[in-house]
């Protein structure tokens, strides 16, 4: 596969992930045009269903990977899979609640704050010193989040806070996945395991707390198919394929466009608009994230042998 093809696959991945924010919002828009936390299918049930769909999509590829690699996992490996699934479920649920209660544009950019969170977690948990650019980038993204909410701390709504909690769990998820994936060398089996666990947790807890109806599932068929089949199943596979055939810096930049696609899709489908202050904040967040992802790679490449 050529690098150009790989980059196009990653761009498609970012497009799917970004536009999925709109689908996650639309699933909870009631007949009166306003978003509701429980619109027949609650956030727990919605999250669980889409991850079970994603698990079914990835399962054949995971089975093939298992046939090719052989061997079995240790108890420690399975525990690692479980931790990944728990973090994935927590991050996805918090994000879903946040998307319902805030704008898609805010959710897209605030979710991306998990990027500078990851190296900070690595420092706190593993005493792994992050690259110096993390600190100014973190300050840049924090100020960007402030501007995104019209330069007012009181403008941070409940939905924004839920998205930020989700970003924290996404940071934990990325950190743990990196460890478990390196240990097991089985990315597809890791993926299907964490998807399945997140799906079961969502479905079971949703059945107890939210009592979803069949009619509600039918009303959300498109949104569940888009976020489960495409966002979880197809996009993940495209990411794995694309990142294996292009430069890491290029992959980081392309995947960062997810938040831009979310804002564009929200403007087209939902009519959301960002003012100048919010656009400035979004630009600061995007710049800080790209600095964290790309600067270390470029510096290592330029470092004399």
From TrEMBL:
<feature type="domain" description="EamA">
    <location>
        <begin position="5"/>
        <end position="149"/>
    </location>
</feature>
<feature type="transmembrane region" description="Helical">
    <location>
        <begin position="161"/>
        <end position="183"/>
    </location>
</feature>
<dbReference type="InterPro" id="IPR037185">
    <property type="entry name" value="EmrE-like"/>
</dbReference>
<feature type="transmembrane region" description="Helical">
    <location>
        <begin position="249"/>
        <end position="271"/>
    </location>
</feature>
<feature type="transmembrane region" description="Helical">
    <location>
        <begin position="195"/>
        <end position="218"/>
    </location>
</feature>
<keyword id="KW-0472">Membrane</keyword>
<feature type="transmembrane region" description="Helical">
    <location>
        <begin position="43"/>
        <end position="63"/>
    </location>
</feature>
<feature type="domain" description="EamA">
    <location>
        <begin position="158"/>
        <end position="291"/>
    </location>
</feature>
<dbReference type="GO" id="GO:0005886">
    <property type="term" value="C:plasma membrane"/>
</dbReference>
<dbReference type="InterPro" id="IPR000620">
    <property type="entry name" value="EamA_dom"/>
</dbReference>
<dbReference type="InterPro" id="IPR051258">
    <property type="entry name" value="Diverse_Substrate_Transporter"/>
</dbReference>
<feature type="transmembrane region" description="Helical">
    <location>
        <begin position="131"/>
        <end position="149"/>
    </location>
</feature>
<protein>
    <submittedName>
        <fullName>Threonine/homoserine efflux transporter RhtA</fullName>
    </submittedName>
</protein>
<keyword id="KW-1133">Transmembrane helix</keyword>
<feature type="transmembrane region" description="Helical">
    <location>
        <begin position="75"/>
        <end position="93"/>
    </location>
</feature>
<feature type="transmembrane region" description="Helical">
    <location>
        <begin position="224"/>
        <end position="242"/>
    </location>
</feature>
<dbReference type="Pfam" id="PF00892">
    <property type="entry name" value="EamA"/>
</dbReference>
<feature type="transmembrane region" description="Helical">
    <location>
        <begin position="99"/>
        <end position="124"/>
    </location>
</feature>
<feature type="transmembrane region" description="Helical">
    <location>
        <begin position="277"/>
        <end position="299"/>
    </location>
</feature>
<keyword id="KW-0812">Transmembrane</keyword>
<keyword id="KW-1003">Cell membrane</keyword>
